[in-house]
User: Fold these one by one.
Assistant:
Number 1:
Amino acid sequence: EQCTELEANSDAAYFAANDRLKLRYLQEMLEHGEAGKLYEGVIAKVSSSGLQVDVAELGIYGFVPREKLGGDLRLDGHRLTSRHGGGYKVGDFIYLALESVDSARGGVMFVPAGR
């Protein structure tokens, strides 16, 4: 049991350090003006405040605020829908550009490509 607990603690420390390195890498991209690269994301969660996206290329989850999505969107179950048709739902692919990194909270903000 003690070995299992130590191994779990070691794994948690490894993943936390790995996440910090990813955030530092993304912050450096922003600081050097290299944030224009587009990433493919998959919508993992839809909420009234925006989209949680899984960016597999970076191995992270990020967030797209609702106000960055454009249009008049409303939450309809597990979708953000527009009055003019279209919208966003879990499982949809979306192309994203890096907007900001919050190292203190461990968060990454994206905007949809072309916005």
Note: The chain has a mean pLDDT of 84.
Number 2:
Amino acid sequence: TLYPERFTRHFDVIFRGESDVTFPNFCRDYLDSGGRENFHSYLNLSAYPGIYVRKGTDVLAREPIHHERAILDALPVPDRSWGEHTQYHQFWLDRSGCKPATILLTRGCPFHCDFCSKPVFGSHFRTRSLAKIMDEVEDIKKYGYDQLWIADDCFTMDIDFIEQFCRCMVQRKAGVTWTCLARADMLTDKTIRLMRQAGCVQVYLGLESGDDETLRLMNKNTTVKTGVQAVYRLYREDIKCGAFFIVGYPGETRDSIEKTFNLALSLPLKEISFNVPFPLPGSALHARVSGLDANSDWDVENEAKFVFQSEFNQLWLKERIAITMCSFEAAKGNTKPF
């Protein structure tokens, strides 16, 4: 979606944005055309929203597409009948004691965090109909899954929607637990209680930093205090909390990094993770870092490895992350006062 021209060396057609409708339509028409040799002449490529095609020096470039709710609600429940689910069940049972399946309830995120890139779903926030969502939940249960991983970028954006979803889960006695991502500044005591009643067992927060100035650099539009309050609200309702942190952000200091490590160890968190800034293409961060090579190793996002020129020593950060993680694991399970 971000730079389709890079892929036209290997692919005839690129689809940008949400291709739930465009791609299946293209596949049907492509098969009717008789194959690759005929499709350029047979198909009216400009009829496919979001398409990008290069033929010699000619380029057809359509803007990425983001569907309105009416189109999302017209989509069928994803087909999960494609194969054997037992290995997925067993993997997660061994790892976490449950059998989760992924589901998306909303699309889009209106926030503009400095490090974030959201080219596929974009900035326009949309919800799906609760009827369709509950149909999908029932379908997921049919295949033996007992937990939902709600993978939305901004699940807690619309409080009314969350509370309606929770009430549906309670009224229908859905019988599955669920986990989700959330913004710390959008969790109220009332909403969290309802989430717990509806089966929520863990929430992941992007706390990112223990320093307000660093949060400002990240354009998070929140504060350390707000994040701390959200963690304890979840803790009081017996919902586990995981937190993501970024250390070594351009413009921050060693002192602010240490504040982040200290914050992570001071809170009643079930899981924590630390990453160095990862300048995703399409993010504001990507546009302003230096020393970023187009051939950078993009396979290291879960490692403390800089893919741009940083003012921080990578080995020092790796060591501090390792020490903090060891301290966290040693103390995990201890109750923190609040």
Note: The first helix runs from residue 22 to 33.
Number 3:
Amino acid sequence: MPPKKGTPNRRGVARREQILDAAVELFARYGYRGTGLLELAERIGISHSGILHHFGTKEDLLRAVMVRRDALVDQAATDYAGKGIFGAQDLQTPTEPDIVIRLVTVLRAENLDPEDPLHDYFDQRDQQTRGLIADEIRRGQQRGEIRSDIDAAAKATEIVAVALGIETQWLLNPTLIDRSAILRSYLRALRDDLTRPDAPRQQTETPK
């Protein structure tokens, strides 16, 4: 039986994935703005209109690239939830292929302006990540595993900032920067910070 109208056939699905693979490579290397659809079409061996047939516009293609990336992130978040701030291995080892980490780093830098196509995407994703980490810190505080005087939201922002900074330095010089080793070192320091006794409260002297 022929496929139902509107249902992509296997060939169409394979072509779509081929376009996405090529887009990831080119966006990661040249950025979204530096990649033309003609260049992308030539790499795959199809026409410019062939890409538009599958994705409509260049921005639609960009968003499709990020939707596919979201599947990796969402799975990592599901695996992480409930394991505690130190219980998830994904904080210590990369959960995404190197090319995807480079892609996200390049696109993040291209979308800092509120009018940029992925500005809200990155802002919302960062908020979700910070919220996830902050919730795990609060659960640890409730269990008595983490200092009660820690500001969970501020610490979550710090953790995300450190992770993004390490990734950027690693991408600039992967032979010099051992990303996994630095993350492990940071996590050891983080564990010591979060689990040491609460800082003593300063007592206010009573005026004589």
Note: The helical segments are 10-30, 37-44, 48-55, 58-80, 98-110, 119-142, 152-172, 179-195.
Number 4:
Amino acid sequence: MNDSPFFDTHTHVHFPIFDADRSLVMDRADEQNISMITVGTNAVTSARAVSFAHEYQNVWAAVGLHPGHTIFSHHDASELLSADAARLQQTNGEQFDFNFYTRLAADSRVVAIGECGLDYFRLAEESKPIQQEVFSRHIELSRQTGKPLMIHCRDAFPDLIDILYAHRSSVLPGVVHFFTGTVDDAHKLLDIGFSFTFGGVITFTTDYHGVIQYLPVEHILSETDAPYVAPVPYRGKRNEPAFVVETVKKLAMLKGFSIEAMRDQIYQNAIRIFKVGS
């Protein structure tokens, strides 16, 4: 029986920062037996994620509109795709086009809806109602497509949980990526079936160890969020999917597992939530 792959639940390996050496990055991931979900953050990157996932057997895609790209928007998805993709990679000007993302999500390589959610860390107070409305539309897209949510949440857990509970009868649980909430937040999200991904930050701070120890191992997954937040011993470098092994090592230590058992459990969790590998 072949070993389970390591699983990078949330990466952005299709982003332009990898254009110069992406083949080498993917070779290193293959050497480490890494499977992954590469995640869109707007129309341009979501469409590119789907295209990229068709190039590799071990890559799947998530499509959605990051809350940081929804504020005071003046461009719809078709305008984004017809304009200069490199310039629009960083734009904050996209309206959520439900029909566009529905078409993307219908692709067989798409296994999640997101990166979507709420981010109150940098964005203005007046953006909150817009973020909340767009997040609710992602929940509806998830329900209609039967694909789980890939949630981003920063400094917004009370509102995020309230919205999810308001949609409790129809929400399709997925994951809260790069989870930074409290044990109480985790308890409430577990109650409606969500799981949690952790990345390189857990290798250089103890801030999240308590919540990891609290969570059932069946609801824990690993990620890189590449190119961001590389783990020790790569801290300060551009992150990449191969580095997810270091996060799995730390998760295994915190949960009292061997690295092989932790790797296998994470992959089984990914199969359950995202139907990958089928």
Note: DSSP finds eleven helices and eight strands in the chain.
